[in-house]
Amino acid sequence: MEEDVMQLNLKELHKALKNDDIETFRLKFNDIHPYDQATFFVNQNHDERMTIYSFLSPEEVADLMEHIELENVEPFITEMDPRFASMVLGELPTDDAVDILNEMEKEKVASFLTIMDEEEADEIKALLHYEEKTAGSIMTTEFVAINKSLTVRETMKQLKVEAPDAETIYYLYVIDEEKHLAGVISLRDLIISDEDAIVGERMNENVVSVSVGMDQEDVAQMIMDYDFLAVPVIDFQNHLLGIITVDDILDVVDEEASEDYSKLAAVSDVHRIEDSPFAAAKKRLPWLITLLFLGLFTASLIGQFEDTLEQVAILAIFMPLIAGMAGNTGTQSLAVAVRGLATGEFANRGKLKLMVKETSTGLIIGSVCGITIMVVIYLWKGELFLGFLVGISLLATLTIATLSGAIIPLIMDKFKIDPAVASGPFITTINDLISISIYFGIATAFLSYLL
Q1: How far apart are CA 248 and CA 343, in angstroms?
Q2: In 3-state terms, what secondary structure has residue 227?
Q3: Cβ–Cβ under 8 Å, residues 175 and 238
Q4: How far apart are CA 353 and CA 211, in angstroms?
Q5: What is the DSSP string of 289-346?
Q6: In this predicted model, what pLDDT tens digit does every residue of 75-133 receive, in sequence order?
Q7: What kind and span of H or E run contains 195?
Q8: CA neighbor of 408 nearest in space, from 436, 435, 394, 428
Q9: Neighbours of 412 (CB within 10 A)
Q10: Other CB atoms closer than 10 Å to residue 351's CB: what's the count?
Q11: How far is the C-alpha of 207 from the C-alpha of 295, rounded, in Å?
């Protein structure tokens, strides 16, 4: 039923937009949720969007822009009239406006900041200079800070004035006369307190905060660990600079997950659908060229066992099987290790436990797969020793490949390299080298039995 009503509203919106009926459009458009507004908006063509801009106020456009992926907002901002766009940016939460401007060329950013209201422009400029992907770059300055000397009654009066412009008021951060972060008090505690009580006496002094330079991934982990709705951001002198809210952290988690996924696929950055083939190829080529040379090394390694292959050509049949299984198990182990490092599961003892666990897992997997392939080869080719040789090779290869999939990210993490860089294709290529060496090494050692 609700879906039918929604479809009817969308038809009426399209009709009002086509007929240039601003009153009907505004009535129907403002009656639906901002997310649905954003969905309707992004599905319109350029001319229809230009009409929508003329029908809505900057504040209304900003509301729907908040429900569009931030990396996709920049084209919409740049197609607007510059003055209208500057007003939309001014209505957006400061941190969101900064994220959008960071996607633009410097000349465009300077142009918008020049046109924008001076006070709003100053707030944005204050955040733009922070390094990307740090707490400072994702924090908002739209929060309520109260002095610890105020009474609850005075605080409630201040809250009524400042709350409409604040991103959240579930937590109120308490500062002293020098704007140092002194504590935190929840809105609930404030409401139930006596009106004449001093905030400094009711606040919780044990406040968890983050440094302005902390990596956004670490901030996200902290908010998830503590189940916070928001966290204050401070400088090295404990001055309160801003806050980071949970909705911003959800964006960070999504961004970091996409980034790690791209690295696991050996792509420098996940490309968007509108990227040209040249741009997409440019992002993929660096890793692929590296893997190409590793592949050449694998080929030369196989060449070292040319005599073995000439004498027992049947060994070549099982080479893709050995290498493929090693790559698969290594990638599985890699995923476990990278996820554990990203979520902070592994302390020093946790890393040792991971290696022991993955080695044991590799032994079990290798044993089962080795016995299976030995039986299959005996039934298929009638060669018991060949089956035994391939089975033993598979056991050794899968054990080592599973361990390497876990240990390589740990080594990279030790040297402060993003463990996600240990991508699936990279692990696969490394394990190709290991598996080929083991397989042909064992075959060469027992060549006389095969002959």
Answers
A1: 18
A2: coil
A3: no
A4: 32
A5: HHHHHHHHHHHHHHHTTHHHHHH-GGGGGGHHHHHHHHHHHHHHHHHHHHHHHHHT--
A6: 999 999 999 999 999 999 888 888 889 888 888 888 888 998 888 888 888 888 888 88
A7: none
A8: 428
A9: 18
A10: 20
A11: 53
Calpha distance 378→350 (Å, rounded) = 42
**What pLDDT shows up at residue 363?**
94
DSSP H helices, 30-70, are 34-42, 46-55, 58-65
Q: Which has the minimum average pLDDT: 9-13, 186-190, 282-286?
A: 282-286
Distance CA 387, CA 325 (A): 16
Read off the pLDDT of residues 386-445 as tens digits, 9 standing for 90 and up.
899 999 999 999 999 898 888 888 887 777 776 665 556 677 778 888 888 899 888 888
Task: Report the distance separating Cα 168 and Cα 323, nearest Å.
Answer: 54
DSSP run (H or E) holding 103: none
Give the model's pLDDT for residue 102: 86
Q: Between the CA of residue 425 and those of 256, 323, 339, 393, what are the distances in Å?
A: 20, 12, 17, 22
For residue 175, the SS3 value is strand
Q: Cα 377 from chain centroid?
A: 45
State the pLDDT confidence band at 264, using cuts at 50, 70 and 90: low
List the structure tokens of 326: 């090693």
Residue whose pair of structure tokens reads 């929840």 in the numeric block: 186
CA–CA gap between residue 439 and residue 393 (Å, rounded): 5
**What does the DSSP 8-state code read for residue 163?**
G
Question: Do 173 and 145 contact (CB within 8 A), yes or no?
Answer: yes
Supply 356's token pair. Answer: 């022991």
Please check whether residue 152 is in contact with residue 202, taking contact to mean a CB–CB distance below 8 angstroms: yes
Yes or no: say if 185 and 199 are a contact pair by the CB < 8 Å rule: yes
Cα angle, residue 322 at apex, residues 320 and 327 outer, rounded to 5°: 90
pTM above 0.85, yes or no: no
373-392 per-residue burial string, b: 16 or more CB within 10 A, e: under 16: bbeebbeeeeeeebbbbbbb
| Residue 151 DSSP one-character state | B
* Continuous segment of H or E residues that includes residue 284: helix 277-303
Q: How many CB atoms lie within 10 A of CB 137?
A: 19
Do 201 and 172 form a contact (C-beta atoms < 8 A)? no
What DSSP character marks residue 247?
Answer: H
Residue 1 one-letter amino acid:
M
Task: Give which of 442, 445, 438, 451 is closest to 301, Cα–Cα.
Answer: 438
Count CB neighbours of 163 within 10 A. Answer: 14
Q: Give the amino acid at 7.
A: Q
Burial class of residue 418 in the structure, from the number of CB atoms within 10 Å of its CB (0-12 exposed, 13-18 middle, 19+ buried): middle
In the chain, what percentage of residues exceed pLDDT 70?
Answer: 89
